[in-house]
Amino acid sequence: MTARLSFPTIIGAATLAATPVAAQQIGAPGKLLLTNGISTVEGAAGGGLTPWATIAGNATRDGIGGQASVTVAELPDYDFRSYAVAAGLFDRVELSYARQVFDTNKVGGALGLGNDFAFDQDVWGAKVRLAGDMVYGSRWMPAIAVGVQHKKSLDATVVRAIGAAQRSGTDFYASATKLFLDWSLLANVTVRATKANQLGLLGHGGALRDDHGVQVEASAAYQLSRRLVIGAEYRSKPSNLAIAREDDWWDAFVAYAIDRRLTATIAYTDLGSIATFNKQRGLVVQLQGSF
Fold first, then answer.
1. Residues of the signal sequence (predicted)?
2. Given this model, what pLDDT does residue 108 score?
3. What distances in angstroms separate CA 235 from CA 152, 250, 268, one per listed residue?
């Protein structure tokens, strides 16, 4: 599969920035291991499917941190790639970007798009932590953050042809996240206002609905050791297009901190029906560098 834009230079530069020297220059890492989360498929820090009220990077309120990731999903009929970078400013503000590539493989030919036709999308995000702390402070008071994600399809003609009302749109969300250290348990709930079709890869809105609807997302993770976490996520989805239903998503994941700057994640995910092709289940792998 070939994306329209190559990202090795971006990812490579971000990975170099994750070296100890760069970290000392910008902001010494200070967060507990793995509490910066991994990269969502839309670029924000959190779980793989849903953002958390954590800020990207290893730096605390005294520094600037960041992370870069590559995520690959292999499904029965499709392939998905996400290339993401995010910056965390003083453990308060996060700015993120992701390029998503959704390869239709042979399905593209069956749908009249041509074999290996790829839907491409840019996602620009911002997040602000408003209150609380994910780890410290009150035992029951979570970190609370609000965020926005602006999504723009690079295939306007195609997404409109399949029934999307717009090629671009904006999601708004609020997340509450808490790590209960006594139990080694993390819990997250995110509420999202969106009208994106399949994350926005198939545009926004459609014949069935063309306004923002409220969706609920949740994550739970258990820390087996300082370096190893297991967990699961759920994400409800809107179903706006007349041509095909859109199902809710879920996954089960294992994340391992190779060291403070490098995290590997593998997940089993069920994305349901995508563009009339059912049982889209498969493995997701992510490698993330952070500083």
1. 1-23
2. 84
3. 21, 6, 14
